[in-house]
Each structure stands twice: as structure tokens, then as C-alpha cells.
Amino acid sequence: MNSNLQQVNHFFNKKRFRLSLILVILGLAYAGASFGLGFQTHSLLNIQDGIAWLIQNFIPNEASQGYWQEISQQLFRTFLVAVAATTCAAIGALFLAIIGAKTLTAAITVSWVIRGFSSLLRNIPIVAWAMILLFSFKQNDLTGFLALFFMTLGFLTRAFMETIEDFGTEKIQALQATGATYLQVIFQGLLPEIAVALMSWILYMIENNVRDATLVGLLTGTGIGFIFNLYFKSLRYGAAGLVVLSVIILVVTVELISNLIGRLLS
User: Fold this and answer.
1) Is 1's pLDDT higher than 60?
2) How far apart are CA 178 and CA 185, in angstroms?
């Protein structure tokens, strides 16, 4: 009995020690970062003042309602850029995934090259893509489209490859044993089977790109991000708050629609 009690106490003491160690490490990391950046901790304690200022200035008012037409037009353009980038990237990603999946590739070297290529594209942050492309294509919708396209291409290529590989070599070999050609295996056996999973990934990326397109617009000077930056810098906080509200409504609407489509497909 005493032995069991000692083991229980030893277990909980070890847990408490690990928790205390983690808290100490986090505290030291915060203190070091605060000291290095000159961060004023007392400002964090007055966060209620910042929230009160936001509520007072960023709530849309009657004056900001006159900007709704311009905001809705730019919001629609942002949505179109996000959808166009996702659909174009999905087509390219499906092609790369088919020739790069281990169960379908002609050579394992091709698979590793495509995996490395997709990892490179998706591991570069969307902000970095926008800044890189901004030097070549300047401030226009094409820059935002390409930034979203490259990141989405990398993400969907990897996701589609894993989905195809989960289909299993046994099913592919069974289809080939019946005399089906390579294209018949893909278009009549593989794609109908994984279509729902592919569509789920595409809908997820549309949601993600609608959110990212706002940030990209801030950098590229286009879409809803541009007019938010314009209103904010010109001290039209009510109009800027209306922009934020419209983006929230769009993101929630897209998510609800994608969830509905996902339930209908499943």
C-alpha cells in the first residue's frame, strides 16, 4: 500500500516539476524577448484602454455607410482573385500529384522532385510571395493572384499526392489486371473514387485564400486590403471598421457554404 502511494506521489511530483520547468522556460523566453525588443509590460496591463478605443472608433457609423458600395466592389474582386487562384492551382496540383504519387509515378525520382517542389512552394509564407512578386509585377491584381496561386499549388500538390497514395496500390493493380490502361485507371477508377476528398481540399483552400487575399491586398495595393489601408491611414476609422466587418461576413459565409457543399458531397 505504501509502495503504491509513493509511486503515485512520485508520478505527480514529476508532472509538477515538468510543468514548473515549462513555465520557467516560457517566463525566461518572454523576459528575454521583452528586454531585447524594449517591450513595455505595463502597456499589456492597459489593454482595456486599447479595446475601448477600438469600440469607440472602429464601430461603423452612419457616415461610413456611404462607403459600402466601394467596399462591396473591392470585396467581390478579392473573392474572385481567391477563387481563381485556388481553381487554377487545383488543376496544376492534380496534374503534378498524378505524375508524382508513388503509386502512379513512372520513376521514384520524379516523385521526390515533385515533393520537393511542392514543399518549397508551400513553405514560403504568403507575405514573402507577395513581396517577391511585387518587384516583378508591381501593384496589381496579378501579383496577388500569383502569390495565392504558388502557395496553393504547393499545398494542394502535397495534399492530392497523399490522397492518391491512400487509394492503395492493390486497387490500382486490380484495375490493371482487368486490362485497364493507365488513363482508364486514372479517369475511370482513381478520380471518381477520390473526387470528394479532392473537393474538400479545394473548398478548404478557397476559405484560406479568401482570408489571405485581404493581407495580400495590403501588400500589393489591390482589393479589400488596399481600401482598408487607405481608410485607416486617412483616419476614416468607421469606414475601416466596415471593411473589417465585411471581410468577417465574407469569410463566415464562404465557410458555411463550403461546409454545406461538403455535407452534400459526403
Assistant:
1) no
2) 10
Contacts of residue 98, Cβ cutoff 8 Å, sequence gap at least 6: 104, 164, 186
C-alpha cell at 105: 509515378
How far, in Å, CA of 158 to CA of 102, rounded? 12
Q: What top-level class would CATH report for the domain 57-265?
A: mainly alpha
Which pTM value belongs to this model?
0.79
Cell of 216: 495580400
- Annotate 15-52 with b (16+ C-beta within 10 A) or e (fewer): eeeeeeeeeeeeeeeeeeeeeeeeeeeeeeeeeeeeee
236-252 tens-digit pLDDT: 888 888 888 888 888 88
> Is 64 within 8 Å of 242 (Cβ atoms)?
yes
Is residue 239 within 8 A of residue 64, CB to CB? The reply is: yes
